[in-house]
Design brief:
With 148 residues, the chain is α+β, with helices and mostly antiparallel strands. It has one domain. It has 3 helices and 7 strands, in the order E-E-E-H-H-E-E-E-E-H. Strands 1, 2, 3, 4, 5, 6 and 7 form a 7-stranded antiparallel beta sheet that branches. The chain starts with a strand and ends in a 21-residue tail after the last helix.
């Protein structure tokens, strides 16, 4: 699976853009209001510290950052990159959004590629139906099982 964007909108809707089968350009843009597992939100918010380093923000701003989504790209030469879009809440009220500069996989170690792997794993779990409400068992009951 090749991800294009993973995040939670300001309205709390999970947004995952991905290509299920690259050979057939099976592009899926999933918007779902079902709450994700807490680990999904944690994986998304784990990008706050790398954003502070990359954007040279003061460490004490971490509590006022909300990571909205992470976008992934692969260039024609196979170079992988990402950018992180964040909402920063101001001390005096209000907020603004910003996106990090492009972060390449080959950049120095403070880049969030380890976080990207965790976020992609959480997005895969979400796509497979692991949500806060629990996994729905949609299999046909075997003979002798009671339904209802």
């Amino acid at each position: 699976m090749k991800f294009g964007r993973i995040g939670i909108t300001e309205e709390g809707v999970v947004e995952i853009r991905y290509e299920k089968d690259i050979r057939f350009l099976d592009r899926i843009n999933q918007h779902c209001e079902e709450a994700p597992l807490p680990s999904f939100a944690e994986a998304l918010q784990a990008f706050r510290k790398p954003v502070i380093n990359i954007c040279e923000l003061a460490p004490e701003t971490e509590d006022r950052l909300l990571v909205l989504y992470v976008s992934f790209k692969t260039g024609s030469d196979g170079t992988r990159s990402m950018s992180v879009t964040v909402k920063k809440f101001l001390v005096k009220g209000g907020a603004f959004k910003f996106t990090t500069p492009t972060i390449y996989e080959s950049d120095p170690p403070h880049t969030p590629w380890v976080n990207a792997g965790k976020l992609k794993a959480e997005a895969t779990r979400y796509i497979q139906g692991e949500r806060l409400q629990g996994r729905l068992n949609l299999e046909t009951p075997e003979k002798g099982d009671q339904v209802g």
